[in-house]
Amino acid sequence: MHRENSPARQTPIDGPGKWTGQPLVQCTSHMCPLRINWHVEDNNKDYWRVKISITNFNFNMNYTQWNLVVQHPNFDNITQLVRLNYKPIISYGGGINDAALFWGEKLHNDLLMDAGKHGNVRGEILLRKDSQTYKFDKGWAFPRRVYFNGDNCVTPPPEAYPRLPNGKL
């Protein structure tokens, strides 16, 4: 997840010549100092709701000024945000809004100073369904790319997401 010159790689263990024996990164099954969870919370006739959770497992990093860039085809239809700030990133000449910059509110950002179960932030996005473009199949509900503080996060391709037996999410 981290580039060679990212702050997490440059952070000294405990300072020059010091070792306290304290772990720096909580050992997890995904072997990453962060977990970003995109969860479809609700799916009704006119809207769908996504919950985003970010958990810090790096005891040596303070992520209070975090940002999250997400690429998803339905960002034209964001109608409400909870505990998140948002700015569209329109990178194409035709005005396609499929990428967004998110960051948390000050009160909630401070939670990423801690690591482990107490070091997490949550936000929600409510998106309107557009009958012309909306299709909730083949991984469409999940982001195409995710970047945390500029670092590319590993995400499975849309076709790798599980499907229900009837092909709907």
Automatic annotation (TrEMBL):
<keyword id="KW-0732">Signal</keyword>
<dbReference type="GO" id="GO:0052324">
    <property type="term" value="P:plant-type cell wall cellulose biosynthetic process"/>
</dbReference>
<dbReference type="InterPro" id="IPR056900">
    <property type="entry name" value="COB_C"/>
</dbReference>
<comment type="similarity">
    <text>Belongs to the COBRA family.</text>
</comment>
<keyword id="KW-0325">Glycoprotein</keyword>
<protein>
    <recommendedName>
        <fullName>COBRA C-terminal domain-containing protein</fullName>
    </recommendedName>
</protein>
<dbReference type="Pfam" id="PF25079">
    <property type="entry name" value="COB_C"/>
</dbReference>
<dbReference type="GO" id="GO:0010215">
    <property type="term" value="P:cellulose microfibril organization"/>
</dbReference>
<dbReference type="GO" id="GO:0005886">
    <property type="term" value="C:plasma membrane"/>
</dbReference>
<feature type="domain" description="COBRA C-terminal">
    <location>
        <begin position="23"/>
        <end position="162"/>
    </location>
</feature>
<dbReference type="InterPro" id="IPR006918">
    <property type="entry name" value="COBRA_pln"/>
</dbReference>
